[in-house]
Amino acid sequence: MFNPKDMIDIIAGNVKATKNPFGIPKWLVNRWHKGQRLPRRGDAMLFTGMMYQLIPYIEKTSAYLTRFENTVLAGYIRYARYIPGYLSGIGLSMLTAGEEKKNSNRILQDIVHILQASNVDFFYRPDLDNYSGVLLYDLGDQQNFIAHARRVAAALQQAGIRKLITVDPHTTYALKVLFPKYVDAHFEVETYFERIHFNSSNGHRRITLHDPCFYGRYLSLSDEPRKKLSKLGIETVLPENNGVFTHCCGGPAESISPQLAGEVGDRRVAELKAAGEPIVAMCPICIGNLKKCGAEVQDLSHIIAACIGNNPGGTSGRHTHP
Questions:
Q1: What CA–CA distance (Å, rounded) separates 48 from 102?
Q2: pTM
Q3: Most CB atoms within 10 A, among 49, 101, 115, 120?
Q4: In which band, very low, low, confident or very high, does the pLDDT at 84 lie, cut at 50, 70 and 90?
């Protein structure tokens, strides 16, 4: 296990310097929207919170942490705080495979496709789309979380943003629960799957759906994706622990102890595999750790987007705005 304070100090420093936990300049992290011609005005803003964009960097960092945990080198992690965040971030970006970055980008592009097929009046402002700071809160650094959340919320409020569409459970929880509680910032927040509104004849399959902790335990959203999938002809087979009793994937512990994260993840993978159907998740942290523990996992957005090709009750064409 790494010293929690060392990890908190490194992450907090990176968030202050570059607005994300890894110190990577935003122009390198957030490139998924390039060439998409997304509207800049509309009813609700798509807010990614950078979580899916960070998947490749989480996986690369986890590989290094796994290698050094419980070795003499683990104690030297504290000195990383003295390296300018953007320098280590650029280095991490260069070490991370381009194909992995493209795979993460495709998830967000699938979500855009789903919203467009559902005729949702949404827009995207990359200048206002920032990491929520939720990992700082998870690790107990409330002071730095509040400082960062204030900056993120202030930018949205100054731009007149009231409605947000989110794509992951960590960001959704931060915006719906933590921002109102700690920085008195109130937005109308919905997940993208709550906005799905099209029919399809392309489903007709069974999947095992893993409920992330925030959706299952804290936001009571587990039933919503199942209802949407059912309307698309997709049956969800429940693992042993689901909904409010869902089993953690182990991923949130990874920055402190990859070994512990692996042990928790192994138990969850066993449960999901026992359900007997292809595993689907809807959280970037869950996807990363479940894969690390040997599971083949698809993102929920990929399953839903695959239904768009033939949906007589809705529209399947992409529409863009200047």
A1: 16
A2: 0.88
A3: 49
A4: very low
